[in-house]
Amino acid sequence: MRIACPHCGLRGVDEFAYFGDASVTRPAADAAETAFADYVYLRDNPAGAHRELWSHALGCQSWLVVTRDTRSHAIETVEAARDVALARTSEAQS
To answer: What's this model's pTM, rounded to 2 decimal places?
Structure first.
C-alpha cells in the first residue's frame, strides 16, 4: 500500500504509523463516566470507507487523515489532520 503524503508525495506504507479511527470525538469534560469508557474502549470495525489517523513517522512527521476502503485497502483521500481539525472547529462554531 502507498500513501500520498500532501507534503512528501507518494510513499510506501512502511514510512507511516497507524493511530486508529479518525472519526472518534472526545466526550465533554463533564460527560458521564460511561461516555469516557465508550470513547476509550468501543470502536466500530467497518467494512468499506473508513477515516483513519496516520503519522508520517519516517518522513515529514505530519499527521494525516486517510480515508481507506477496509475491504480493498484502496486509499480514497489523504488530508492533513490540521486541516480536518480546523474544518471540524469551524463547523462546530457555525
So the answer is: 0.84
Q: Give dist(CA 52, CA 65) in Å, integer.
A: 6
pLDDT digits (tens, 9 = 90+) for 12-33: 999 999 999 998 889 999 999 9
64 vs 5: CA distance, rounded Å = 8
C-alpha cell belonging to residue 58: 519516517
User: DSSP for 55-80?
Assistant: E-TTTT--EEEEEEETTT--EEEEEE
Report domain extents, the chain. 2-24+45-93
Residue written as grid cell 519516517: 58
CA angle 16, 20, 23 (to 5 degrees): 120
Distance, in Å, from the CA atom of 89 to the CA atom of 69, rounded to the nearest integer, reads 26
Cβ neighbours for 26, distance < 8 A, ≥ 6 positions apart: 39
Tell me which fold the domain 2-24+45-93 belongs to.
Folate-binding fold (3.30.2270)
